[in-house]
Design brief:
- Helices cover about 75% and strands about 0% of the residues.
- By secondary structure, the protein is an all-alpha fold.
- It is elongated.
């Protein structure tokens, strides 16, 4: 067994799942791309479903980990905290473009695994976004809005480049894998925060935010 066989299997699976779809990818396809045999895949992940679960968990553990770390800056202000969350999540997705595209596509399919992900990671994500928005309202940094609708908009902005990569490339000629995209798109996300949430707001004195 190759020393890095598990890592190679995961890389191959992500590429194949993203290009051929989960259902269209076989264990043999993954084994061939990873240059291992199917027994090695079974050793690490048991079966294809186990490999899929690993990919989901790997993605969302890191995603939520970045949110948790960024949320620690909430005492610096809700706007500053939200900007850090947005920047960290965008960077993570850009660094894991293939994985993000595949995971988001699979999340649109109703399955037991997707329900489990939503019952754990998606609820954690909602918790942190909700706390940031609530603090922003409390500290008079954000204009009042419906929190569920704010989350819908922000999630849409964060996910769209990774759920429609073919449209981005073929129609808009925008390439999420390029560093320029991350820099440019982050400015657009910051503009959404400033214009939708913060325009016409006179923040309270910093002493109020402890």
């Amino acid at each position: 067994m190759k020393p890095n066989s598990k890592e190679e299997i995961v890389k191959a699976a992500i590429l194949l799942f993203n290009s051929k779809g989960y259902s269209g990818t076989s264990m043999r396809d993954i084994a061939k791309a990873a240059k291992v045999n199917t027994a090695t895949i079974a050793y690490h992940f048991e079966n294809k479903a186990g490999l899929l679960e690993f990919c989901f968990t790997y993605f969302f553990e890191q995603y939520i980990g970045r949110m948790e770390e960024a949320y620690k800056s909430i005492d610096k202000g809700a706007k500053a905290c939200l900007k850090r969350v947005v920047a960290d999540l965008l960077h993570f997705q850009c660094q894991n473009l293939q994985l993000a595209s595949f995971v988001y596509r699979e999340m649109s399919i109703d399955s037991q695994m997707v329900r489990e992900i939503m019952a754990t990671y998606s609820l954690k994500e909602k918790f942190y976004f909700q706390k940031i928005f609530e603090r922003g309202f409390e500290w008079n940094e954000f204009r009042p809005h419906s929190i569920p609708y704010l989350i819908i908009q922000l999630k849409g902005l964060l996910m769209m480049p990774f759920t429609n990569t073919h449209y981005m490339r073929e129609v808009l000629y925008v390439f999420p894998n390029e560093q320029f995209f991350e820099q440019k798109y982050l400015k657009e996300l910051y503009q959404w925060i400033e214009q939708l949430l913060c325009s016409n707001i006179t923040p309270k004195k910093e002493a109020v935010i402890k």
